[in-house]
Amino acid sequence: MKTVITYGTFDLFHEGHLNLLKRAKALGNRLIVGVTTEQFDVQRGKMNVVDSLMRRLDNVRNSGFADEIIIEEREGQKLEDIQKYNADIFVVGSDWTGKFDYLKEFCEVTYLPRTKNVSSSGIRTLRREIIKLGVVGTGRIAKRTMEELHFVSGITATAVFNPNPKSAKKFAEKFSIGIESSNYEQFLNEVDAVYIASPHETHYDYSRRALIAGKHVLCEKPFVLKETEAKELFEIASETNLVIMEAIKTAYSPGFLNLLAIARSGRIGKIHDIEAAFTKLVPETPKAREYNSICGGAFTELASYSLLPIVKLLGTNYSELSFDCFKNKNGIDIYSKAYFKYENSVATVKTGIGVKSEGQLLISGTNGYILVKSPWWLFKGFEVCYEDPNDNEFFSTPFHGFGMRYEFADFVQNINEASFKNFKLTKSDSIFMAKIMEEFLKKRTNSL
Ligand code: C2G
């Protein structure tokens, strides 16, 4: 008797799930399927689960492959279950390759090839289409996003685009993506939505062509580098009833939203100063993207994060804006600061790719201040501090994985629910950021 065990959320039950259960069952005589509870999914950072646990259990039962169904409700349960049920083989899809090798001490571990390009056709139980996502770009951020995507229910990467066919092919193989393309129009025909993680200077063109082809767009920061381009893209999207969002992962993270609520609640009194820094030393090599184009440099690379608390808490009506920056021999800034003056407050942005500083966020008010320690943008927690340090309060907040899952969860909800209010990073926020980028690049070229 060979017992096989596998686990999953099995949300929006689709052919990928069916194939996995079918192949798992074929590896033994008895298949046990663990279905995750809502709470466990929240805890492990699985976003956007639509179906209730009951519906997901029914869908697994209706598949006919499970001999026994259990629920998975906590970290570490897999190991207990393998021993409790005397399982011989643990099975999971290849998107988890390596993540469960620790179980090899207790049973065989098999990673089965993930089903490519799942669609809802043929699965009558499906309540919602699985969004087919096209990934534009195959660099570090795109790779990290692929790790994050299977934590977001309702969307799956079915195509990857890179002008260099070899890069597209390599990425598709690594992440079991069905379609690789170096022809953008053909790529767009294969997907419902695109995630643009290509070099800054390509964002406007790729976003525009995607919108015109009727595809939703999630574009990495900096979205675009001209105010007029940002306005135009949002205009096209609203005319064609499409979603367009800028991907600044911090904006969608639970911790940042928690901080905004507390800062706005008056807890630290009236806010008079916001200082946000983000530096990341990048060696100046011929391949380094950060130095290598007219859009490169510290400010375009990193200021989007630091502009976030400023635009969210102080708004877009600054009265003065000035910059300081240090440039390398090619005129690319290695260290830049922006100074904002508002009616009742000031704000500073500090960015560096050739200079290192403390990457913290400090919001100063008449009653106290909020300090988010470095790396503040990965929002794992923050402290509200007062005159009497005994009154200080620390808030720890979840920030799972690389953090892209939060923006993708909002992207999926925006696409599926027209009524969904995207308040976390709005059209005016992104247009403001594009405007500041444009101001900076003008100043950097002229005199800075
Ligand atoms: N799967 C697949 N092909 C797809 C989608 C999913 O083979 N296109 C597999 C997954 O690899 C997993 C199973 O189907 O083995 C269930 O997928 P999910 O419901 O997304 O579950 P997941 O979040 O991957 O959780 O503790 C839970 C497990 O770690 C798996």
Structural commentary:
This protein has 448 residues and is α/β, with parallel strands linked by helices. The protein has three domains: 3-118, Rossmann fold; 121-247, NAD(P)-binding Rossmann-like Domain (Rossmann fold); 254-398, Dihydrodipicolinate Reductase, domain 2, CATH 3.30.360.10. The protein has 13 helices and 19 strands. It has helices at 15-25, 38-44, 53-63, 77-84, 140-149, 165-174, 184-189, 203-212, 227-239, 254-264, 298-314, 404-416, 427-446; strands at 3-8, 30-36, 68-72, 89-93, 108-112, 131-136, 155-161, 179-181, 193-196, 216-220, 244-247, 271-279, 320-327, 333-341, 346-352, 361-365, 369-372, 381-385, 393-396. An eight-stranded mixed sheet has the order 13-14-15-12-16-17-18-19, covered by helices on one side. Helix 8 packs parallel to helix 9 (227-239). The protein starts with a strand and ends with a helix. Residues 121-126 have low confidence and may be disordered. Bound molecules: [cytidine-5'-phosphate] glycerylphosphoric acid ester.
